[in-house]
Amino acid sequence: MNDFAGRVARYRQELAALADARDAAVADLEQFRDSAAYTSKVAEIDAAHKVALDALRAEHRPLLTKPLADMRAEVAKKQGDLVVPDQRQLVLLQVLGMKSTVSRSELDRAAAALQGCPMGLSVLDDLAEKHEIHGCHYNDGPDPDRVLQQIDQMETAVGWMLSAERHDLKHLPGQTPEDIRRTTLIQEHATAADVARRFGSIPTDELEGFESLVEIQA
User: Fold this and answer.
1) Is 145 within 8 Å of 128 (Cβ atoms)?
2) Over the stretch 144-188, which tens digit does the pLDDT of each residue have?
3) Do residues 107 and 134 touch, judged by C-beta distance below 8 A?
4) Cα dihedral 107/110/112/117 (nearest 10)
5) DSSP line for 24-56
6) What's the CA gap between 156 and 199, in Å, rounded?
7) What's the CA gap between 160 and 178, in Å, rounded?
8) Is the overall model pTM greater than 0.85, yes or no?
9) How far apart are CA 208 and CA 216, in angstroms?
10) How many CB atoms sit inside 10 A of residue 115's CB?
11) What does the alpha-carbon distance between residue 92 and residue 77 come to, in Å, rounded to a whole number?
12) What is the mean predicted confidence (pLDDT) over 86-113?
């Protein structure tokens, strides 16, 4: 996540440099504001700025989306490496699934026998929900499907960020939801956790689990 956050920060810095250069060029013309050529000169500056902005977007889009593709590939790899229940654990799950009623203590004992098997622990969570046994959660590992959804949201957010014209957009009355989203994403982000929250709606308490799935193992 730190790598992606760093790439977001670098794009924002370069976008800021472009905006500052454009603003400085326009400011240099301020003394000629009342002249006939002022409007055309500003238009020339804005046209050159747009060319530079499009080039910046084209340069950074693959730099921002490649880490997300790598994350997806890593999640898929780890999904392929899922630990399935062994024969003894499978029989235990089948017996619990056949019971008309299941107690909390039975699930707790089964969880002890299923340690190291997230898939089996997820089945216990399903059984707890089915039998309306509240307050127990056995599989604390990240949900791969949820992580993939968060990565998809991050990629959508990259598109929103790249569509921003400036780095210093402000929230204004009457903005559309799209404008608000664009403004929020292009603002300066203090930490990788802040980027994760704004781009992928990843809560801080889920970030460690998210990173455990997307981190590329050597």
Assistant:
1) no
2) 888 999 999 999 999 999 998 898 888 778 888 878 877 888 888
3) no
4) -110
5) HHHHHTGGGTTSTTHHHHHHHHHHHHHHHHHHH
6) 8
7) 8
8) no
9) 14
10) 11
11) 28
12) 94
Q: Which of 178, 187, 200, 199 is nearest to 12 (CA)?
A: 187
Q: Given the structure tokens 């499009």, which residue do they identify?
A: 54
CA 124 – CA 117 distance, rounded (Å)? 11
Per-residue pLDDT tens for 58-69? 999 999 999 999
State the chain's maximal CA–CA distance in angstroms: 87
Q: Are 82 and 119 in contact (CB under 8 A)?
A: yes
Alpha carbons 106 and 119: distance in angstroms, whole number: 18
State the residue for tokens 């460690």. Answer: 208
DSSP secondary-structure letter at 164? -
DSSP assignment of 64-106 equals HHHHHHHHHHHHHHHHHTPPPP-HHHHHHHHHHHH-S---HHH
How many helices and strands, by DSSP H and E, does the chain display?
9, 0
Residue with structure tokens 């210093």? 168
Residue with tokens 């902005």: 53
Distance CA 16, CA 20 (A): 6
